[in-house]
Design brief:
The chain has helices spanning about 5-15, 15-35, 40-50, 50-60, 70-80, 80-95, 100-105, 110-120, 125-145, 155-160, 165-180, 185-200, 205-225. It has about 230 residues and is an all-alpha fold. The protein has one domain (about 5-165). It is flat and about 55 Å long. About 40% of the residues are buried.
């Protein structure tokens, strides 16, 4: 199957998710304007970051002068689940040409990752992934553009809550990988256990950081033990 055909199949598979991406973009564009972000900045951020939950986490901090370090830390913490998603597809991405690899890395989002995991084992998986991601990207950008014209759809408290939605998706990642594990099961189990423990004592973004970090550390220790 050709790369173009696989991308088209990915685009068709993500049609339903594209509606959600459009609505998410609509809410972001509206909220960004309501909180004082200029329309051109919200469009540039959306086009270059393409990370809905991370962008929502930055909105409550958007003030003058910009707290760059606080924004960077907040976005990094919310986005730590992308490490698990990227690791789970890394073997497939390595088989693709460099342009497709870079496009896949840039457009790594929750919905296209879930579709790709469902299609594991198919030829041209990276092309399929990129086709689905680009469909979501276009829908997201159209939503943001229209949302800029509809300010004040959500209040700041709701915006902050949306920014921590990554914790819920981390749980979905762990459940799916427990059923269809990529590599040893232990790192995923460690990550899940740490997430549960931290849920009683830490804020949502620190749960993400701790769970992903613990899983990665256990994987490194396992590999060292095997080599020794």
């Amino acid at each position: 199957m050709s790369t173009a055909s696989s991308m088209m199949q990915g685009a068709r598979a993500s049609a339903g998710f594209a509606i959600g991406a459009f609505m998410f973009g609509l809410v972001f564009g509206s909220t960004a304007i309501a909180l004082g972000m200029p329309a051109d900045q919200s469009l540039v951020m959306s086009a270059t970051a393409f990370a809905g939950a991370a962008q929502f986490s930055a909105l409550p901090l958007w003030s003058h002068p910009l707290p760059y370090l606080a924004i960077a830390i907040s976005v990094a913490l919310v986005s730590t689940r992308n490490i698990l998603m990227g690791l789970s597809l890394s073997a497939d991405f390595r088989q693709a040409p460099w342009p497709l690899r870079l496009l896949a890395i840039f457009t790594l989002v929750d919905a296209s990752w879930a579709l790709a995991m469902r299609e594991r084992g198919r030829a041209e998986l990276t092309a399929f992934f990129c086709g689905s991601s680009m469909t979501l990207y276009v829908s997201w950008m159209v939503g943001v553009l229209l949302g800029n014209l509809l300010p004040e759809m959500l209040d700041p408290v709701t915006v902050a809550a949306i920014g921590f939605g990554g914790v819920i998706f981390l749980a979905l990642v762990l459940v799916l990988l427990a059923k269809n594990p990529v590599g040893p099961r232990l790192p995923w189990a460690v990550s899940a256990l740490v997430a549960v423990v931290l849920s009683y004592v830490a804020a949502p973004h620190f749960i993400l950081l701790g769970a992903v970090g613990a899983g990665a550390l256990s994987s490194v220790l396992m590999r060292r033990r095997v080599r020794d």
